[in-house]
Structures are given as structure tokens and as C-alpha cells.
């Protein structure tokens, strides 16, 4: 007689079902969506985040200089810098009257306060993001990858809107810290990148997964590299336009 192996004596590899390449999770012949569908939205989101780095730093410096009332920072009444223009009407019915950027940037006291505020804004975003990322990741496993991708994008929108409001009305910089706090609690870049990789892992076969990770990460880093450059060029174009009008 030939002995029959029981199910308990079978190895895990023998018991595991053979998954279809088109459906690595269920083994069904189901056509999965392309993992490249996540690339445009994630790339544009990262590009938008990085485009605000340089303008945000300038806004913080100018508001700090305005609060300190640095001598000589308001002598240039005809400056056409979009972040320095005096009494420039805005569609919101407010007025933008920030001091001269070049004079403010030379002040040591302004530089110290700007560095302090940069540290506060960085902490208010990064620490909440580290705390919230595991919880948002668990919710993304239960509610789907769209949830994990949408949450940090909503946080980025809230952050950018608060930056615009603070710049237009010269409000307290603590509002920027609140915006960064909300951005961090909603996951920020950490959750965005993790959700993108999780989506790729869910929708790609094992044989091509590693190469897809590398390509998508390359898109993300290119967006991070181009963002500050694009933001700076837009600022220069706007400055040139106002200097001619």
C-alpha cells in the first residue's frame, strides 16, 4: 500500500494555491488596473508640495520682518516684487503691504527668527506625520488605497490655502503651524508614498513589482527636484510681469 500524506504533513508551499499572474491576491483570472494609474496623481501632488518650499520661506521671512519693523525695510515704495508690492489690490478685497525682501534678508535678527519659525513649521508637520502614518496605513488596508492617497492630498490643499491666506492678510504665523499640523495628521508625504507603493504592490505581478517600485520612485524624486525650480521660475515670471505694468 502507498501511504497517503495527510494535510497536516504537507508543506505550506504545497498547500498554497497557485496565483494567477493577473491576480496575485485571489488567483482569479481578473484583469487588474494598471499600476501606472497612480503615477500622474502622486507626481503632481509631490510637485505641488515642493513648489511651495521657496515661496513659503520668503513669506515667513517677510512677515517676520514686518513684525520686527526693521529700519529701512519700507523705504522702497515702488518695489514691484509680487511678495513686496505695496498696496497691491487683491481679489479678496485686502491689501498686500509687506516690507522689502532684500533689506529684510540682510537683517541678522530676521534670519534668526526665520530659522526659528522654519524649525517650528517643520516639527509641527513631521512629528504628527510619524504618529499618524501607521493608523492611516491600517485604515487604508481596510478602506482601500484611494483613502490612503486622498488623505495627504486633502492635507496639502489645506496647507496651501492657509499659506495663501496668511500671505494675503499678514496673519499670525501660528496659522501656518496649524496648517502643517493638519497636513501631518493626514499623513503628508509619508502616507502618500506608502499608499502609492501599496497600490503598485496590489496591482502588479511579483515578477515586475521591483522594477515598478524603482520607476515610480524615480518619478517622485524627479518631481521633488523640479518643484523648487518651477516654483522659483513662476515667482520670477510674476515679478517680471509686475515690473513691466
Strand coverage percent: under 5%
Integer tally of domains: 1
Instruction: Report mean pLDDT, rounded to a whole number.
Output: 79
Multimeric state: single chain
Largest sheet at a glance? 2 strands, antiparallel
Q: State the end-to-end CA separation.
A: 98 Å
Instruction: Please tally the helical runs, counting DSSP H or I stretches of 4 or more residues.
Output: 9
Low-confidence stretches: 4-30, 75-96
Rg estimate, integer Å: 25 Å
Strands, total number:
2
How much helix, percentage-wise, in residues?
55-70%
| CATH architect. name | Up-down Bundle
Task: Give a description of the structure.
With 245 residues, the chain is mostly helical. The protein has one domain (36-244): Growth Hormone, Chain: A (Up-down Bundle), CATH 1.20.1250. Helix content is 68%, strand content 2%. The chain contains 9 helices and 2 strands; from the N terminus they run αααββαααααα. It has a two-stranded antiparallel ribbon. Strand 1 (88-89) and strand 2 form a beta hairpin. Helix 2 (38-51) runs antiparallel to helix 8 (188-203), helix 5 packs antiparallel against helix 6 (145-169) and helix 6 runs antiparallel to helix 7 (174-185). It is elongated. The N and C termini lie far apart (98 Å). Residues 4-30 and 75-96 have low confidence and may be disordered.
